[in-house]
Amino acid sequence: MIDVIVDLVAATLRIGTPLLLAALGEIITERSGVLNLGIEGIMYSSAFSGIAAASYTGSLWVGLFVAVGTGLVAGLILAFLTVTLGVNQHVAGLGLTLFLISVSNTVNRILFTSDGGQVRVDPWKSIGFGGPIFDQYLFTYGALFVGAPLVWWIVWRSGFGLRVRAVGENPEAADVAGIPVARTRYQAILLGSAFMSLAGAFITLAYVGQFTINIINGRGWVALALVIFGRWNVGRCMLGAAIFSLVNAGQLQLRLVPAFADVPFELLLALPFLAVIVGLAVSGRNVPYPGSYLKPYRRL
Amino acid sequence: MSSPTPSVLLKDIRKAYGATVALDGVTLELKPGEVHALLGENGAGKTTLMKTLFGLTQPDTGHIEIGGVTTTIASPRDARSAGIGMVTQHFSLVKTMTVGENLALAEAGLIRVDLAKARRIAQEAADRYGLEVPADAVVAGLPVALQQRVEILKALAAGCRYLILDEPTAVLGPKDVDSLLAVVERLRDQESMSVVLISHKMKEIERVADRVSVLRRGAVVASTTAKGMTTRELVSLMVGSDAAESVERIAQATRGDAAVALALRDVSVKRQLGGLDDVTLEVREGEILGVAGVSGNGQSELVDVLSGTLRPDYGQLEVAGKVVVDPSPFALLAAGVGILGEDRHASAVHHLPVVENLVLDQLRSVTRLGHLDRAAMAERCETAIKEFEIKATPSQHLGTLSGGNMQKVLLARLFGRSPNAAIVSQPTRGLDIASTRYVRSLIAGARDKGTAVVLVSEDLDEVLELADRVAVMYRGRVAGILHANEVTRERLGELMAGVSA
């Protein structure tokens, strides 16, 4: 029994890593008043570009840099559309996601799969400190012990974070106070996109070690839901990510239980997403959205 | 529509929001077949009074009589069935629908939407009053003048006999103003309707108003026949007379030798409505320059230019004798210009605590290597709370503070950075008496410490009380500058009315 629990916790940490990283990025972005629906596409394209670069250069680190670079370029596109042009953020974000996924798939076909192959690398291995729970990837340690505290500090304890929150709540007031609204939103979107691309890179460069179609599989959307569930707070988002990942890890283990052999695995697969819906239904009402959420800012 | 329209009487209407008295026992009568103009500075209570009549707010005491019968108007629905219609400053049209659909909406049944009837109403209004609207056009695509007509038409279709128009001409160009006033005249003359016209534009009132009432700080200070009154007489009614209303000055004589802290040189802003036209102003250290004028004559644009949110098309800003090359909000703040905007809600972040709002415009002074120095912020906040008598805790969200306390926080932020020049716009609008007095003493105190102050206010008493010199704005220009010892209400009124010197 204790083994099961230990395995469950270890799996939860692995599954939760990309969700937490992506959610951290989305927290920063949305705190500035911008919704980044490009999250799924950014994760997808970074997952691809990262492993592609790694397979060509033979260096996972180069792959990681390329992945983050991809995320920054994507973030720049979103920022230009939503901040500079003031385009509807739903349309811009979803469009970006569709665009990035298609481009990644196309390049993947041209470079790797046209002759029936598949891009693979020898991924990062987990680093063990004894026991399955403390045998995790560098990304996982990083997300938990660096990423989350860092984002908390940025949002609540840094001058930049205060600017981001001011711009997200009342851009007029921020503008009058000498805070450049557009620049602050660009910075928030770019920083957020970098976190999202780390989430994508984790999946190909560490977790799986190869790129397959649909590899992100809605993790970006889950992260988006976690941010609302977490009310734009790092701690609550971590809690949400933990619950989702635990349910996910649980259903993976259930599949191995003989009694569940006859249950269609798709049903079990749906369980964590059901958890997301239930979670949002319970705590997603009357959430304190940032005051200028979805609103482009223009001086009159 | 031939049965005689009774008159409407608002009697002793009183409305307070906390300690702020918005309406202080106002009595007003609307007679059939008259255009009744409501004059007064923004925040004097005109809109609140009319919202009471239209059922959007409930008075604390007082009542409404229609034809001598006390009538309760608890909602706009009640108002409509009593024959009262209102076109507010913010239209309530469904923008994605056509004009006809908007008209039919009010009486749309479960299944049938009577568009034919809506078209008929529109046609009839066009024929009778010249109120032409394209019945099949989508509202969102219409210019604002036409949207306004749809609003009026909606009120008429609901059978209204008292029509309230809240600053209807503020958003219109001259031609549209003309046709709107023509419609108003026809409604009065042909239908014996009673029209309330809230406006800051004397020419319009001169043209159509039969009666005019002036509100100041929630009370009617004058109510008289408007027929035959000139713009100049209307303005003097608005500003009052020195004999009747004396103000105790807390001003001091300008020291002519003090350095010029802030100057505008030939500043012009071109806009379709409003704008600035060749404005040159100087304000010296230790001086309060009052900027007076009837609302909408360029004062807001002036403040926007000084805060850096509006770039002049021509002309330049000088701070302490140096031209500000790129007058962004940040550059002006860095040069030592502080701003208190006219709308405190637009200058404050409601969802941030007091302590964070206090440092928003001076983040660099409390960050080291990107880290916010919370201890320093807390200390600054404690000092500000004590010094400015703010009734709040540092961690309280700004949005939960009363207007007076919110204003004090913003003033604390402004004066906390010891600016060379402070721009304060409508600093006491909507504040209770105690807060008003306190805010004015703060402004005078800053002046006495050598700060150059630009006080933009529609409240003439405030300008008379504080200003060492008064610049009067008229149609985006500086109509004249008066020294404290030559300021009289009469002279100010002349300048405000555009009577050239």
What features would you describe in this structure?
The complex is a heterodimer of chains A (300) and B (501). With 300 residues, chain A is mainly α. Chain A has a single domain (2-118, 145-283), classed as ABC transporter involved in vitamin B12 uptake, BtuC. Helices cover 72% and strands 1% of the residues of chain A. Chain A has a two-stranded antiparallel sheet with strand order 1-2. In chain A, helix 2 packs antiparallel against helix 3, helix 2 runs parallel beside helix 4 and helix 10 runs antiparallel to helix 11 (265-283). The longest helix of chain A is centred in the N-terminal third of the chain and has 30 residues, at 2-31. Chain A is globular, with a radius of gyration of 19 Å. Chain B has 501 residues and is α/β, with parallel strands linked by helices. Chain B folds into 3 domains: 8-243, P-loop containing nucleotide triphosphate hydrolases (Rossmann fold), CATH 3.40.50; 244-336 and 419-501, P-loop containing nucleotide triphosphate hydrolases (Rossmann fold), CATH 3.40.50; 345-418, no CATH class. Helix content of chain B is 33%, strand content 25%. Chain B is built from 17 helices and 22 strands. Chain B has helices spanning 46-53, 76-81, 99-105, 115-129, 144-157, 174-191, 202-208, 231-239, 299-307, 329-334, 344-347, 354-357, 374-387, 403-416, 433-448, 460-466, 489-496, and strands at 8-17, 20-30, 35-39, 61-66, 69-71, 84-87, 162-166, 194-198, 211-216, 219-225, 260-270, 275-284, 288-292, 314-319, 322-323, 337-340, 367-368, 371-372, 421-425, 452-456, 469-474, 477-483. In chain B, strands 6-7-8-3-9-10 form a 6-stranded mixed β-sheet, with helices on both faces. In chain B, strands 16-19-20-13-21-22 form a 6-stranded mixed β-sheet, sandwiched between helices. A 4-stranded antiparallel β-sheet of chain B has the order 2-1-4-5, covered by helices on one side. In chain B, strand 4 and strand 5 (69-71) form a beta hairpin. In chain B, helix 3 (99-105) packs across helix 4 (115-129) and helix 8 (231-239) crosses helix 17 (489-496). The longest helix of chain B is centred in the middle third of the chain and has 18 residues, at 174-191. Chain B is globular, with a radius of gyration of 25 Å. The two termini of chain B are 49 Å apart. The model of chain B has no long low-confidence stretch (mean pLDDT 90). Chains A and B meet through helix 6 and helix 7 of A and helix 10 and strand 18 of B.
